[in-house]
Design goal:
Elements lengths: L2 H28 L4 H7 L2 H18 L3 H4 L2 H9 L11 H24 L3 H28 L1 H8 L2
Helix pairs in contact: 1-3, 1-6, 3-5, 3-6, 5-6, 5-7
Length: 156
């Protein structure tokens, strides 16, 4: 990893951390939702925390598997969020967060794939599937069952 790649990763991770703090403050502090509702209605936050934990593990241990572990939730909640949330008003902050999540994911994938480290990618995606597919399923079921709460809190 070059110094420029490392610096880019650190800057992106810091931005993601700040965005995660901001959304957490909104949901827990302003909207006053429960921790369960925060996890479900703001699934971007736990997804981002998973990426940030993997990023720190990568920096400290050098194992690129950790860069791939959060790909599925980051893609699902971050990148796909481009198509769910409107691009106006206060939703622009959510979209900026989705952009930041996507850029972090792409940075991690770049480091893994530029060296053709398919083993790290495969292991990371397997871990991601085992952990986050049930989480995604749970969040979707919960949101469907509490659609009125979701729409009022998120303003959709």
């Amino acid at each position: 990893m070059t110094k420029a790649e490392r610096l880019t990763g650190i800057i992106l991770a810091c931005l993601l951390f700040l965005m995660t703090l901001n959304s957490t403050w909104y949901f827990l502090g302003v909207a006053k939702v429960s921790v369960l509702q925060w996890l479900v209605f703001n699934a971007c936050a736990p997804s981002s925390v998973a990426y940030l934990a993997g990023f720190i593990l990568f920096l400290t241990r050098g194992n690129k598997v950790w860069l791939s572990v959060a790909v599925i939730p980051i893609f699902f909640f971050g990148t796909m969020g481009f198509f769910v949330f409107p691009w106006n008003g206060y939703n622009l902050m959510a979209q900026i967060s989705h952009i930041t999540m996507t850029l972090n994911m792409l940075w991690g994938l770049w480091l893994v794939l530029k060296e053709k480290n398919f083993e790290a990618l495969g292991k990371g995606l397997l871990i991601s599937t085992v952990i986050f597919v049930p989480f995604i399923s749970f969040t979707q079921d919960y949101c469907r069952a509490h659609a009125g709460d979701v729409t009022s809190i998120l303003g959709i």
